[in-house]
Amino acid sequence: MPDAVPYFDISDPSFSITSAAVHEARERSWYARTNYGLAVLRYDEVGRLLKHPKLRQGSVAWPAHNGVTEGPFARWWASWVLNKEGEEHHRLRRLMNPAFANRHVRGLVPRFQALATELVDGFAAPDRCEFVTEFAEPYAARVIALMLGMPEEQWREIARDAATIGLAMGVTLRDDLPKIEAALANLYGYVDELIANRRREPREDFVTALVRASEDHDRLGDDELRDGLVLLIFGGFDTTRNQLGLAMASFVRHLAQWELLASRPELGGAAVEEVMRVNPTTRWVTREARETFVFQDVEIAAGTTVHLFTESAGTDPRTFGPPSFDLTAERAPHFGFGGGAHHCLGHFVARGDMREALPLLARRLRAPRIADGAAWLPDSGNTGPVRLPLTFTPGN
Amino acid sequence: MQIVVDLSICQDHGQCAIAAPEIFHMDDEGHLVYTAEPGAALREAAEDAADACPVQAITIED
Question: Which in A6, A59, A135, A178 has the greatest CB count within 10 A?
Answer without folding.
Answer: A135
